[in-house]
Known about the structure:
Number of strands: 8
Shape: globular
Oligomer: single chain
Helix content: 40-55%
Number of helices: 10
Order of helices and strands: HEHEHEHEHEHHEHEHEH
Amino acid sequence: MSEPAAAAVRRAxxxxxxxxxxxxxxxxCAAAGRSPDEVTLIAVTKTFPVADVVALSELGLxxxxxxxxxxxxxxxxxCAAxxxxxxxxxxxxxxxNKAASVVSYASVVHxxxxxxxxxxxxxxxVAAGRDTPGRELSCLVQVSLERAADEDAGHGPAARGxxxxxxVLALADAIAAEPGLVLGGVMAVAPLGAPPRPAFALLRxxxxxxRAAHPGARVxxxxxxxxxxxxVAEDATHLRIGTALLGGRRAFVR
Length: 254
């Protein structure tokens, strides 16, 4: 198959997946008594090529998520060179030494989970001139629902990152006070091996407490390919979808 023909086949596949995904989201919203307009779909394109991002953009999807800076930075640069207008969401665990790179392309960082990272992102955002209204980096507090479950059970902290629910407000206050950053809301990943609905219900409660102190922090980033219905039922505003949209993950090559 020629390269143009293969590209057309892939675009048709992505279009079909996107239509099916939007139907799932609409059905989940209807079941929850919500409008689909309340839910933003983020296409998580980790391990997938720039060509897939181009196809998604052509299909009207401009919110793109990545979880590794070493993959995201060149991909964002390539898409910018093509003239694509995209909002990049960094959704993976972030080391402070990658803050400067992430600030250079991301609109939102979903995984802020410790004060040192807040300071690093703020410092780099100011250095990049993002401390003016409308240019700030939006940050979400990652809440470790897994950590809450493990600590309740007497286990140690979870390894997947995130702040304990009781630490969220202090971290949010730090983000809100940092020049160059704006507090967007919260993010979480459902715990492994446990029903997602109770975890997302806890996230909704944490988000409510956060909004009481910071009314503008309205984002609840939760839900992936396998549990988006549970996330929508618990008021998620942003869904991070990879497999249901683009298929199984490919091997990542540096």
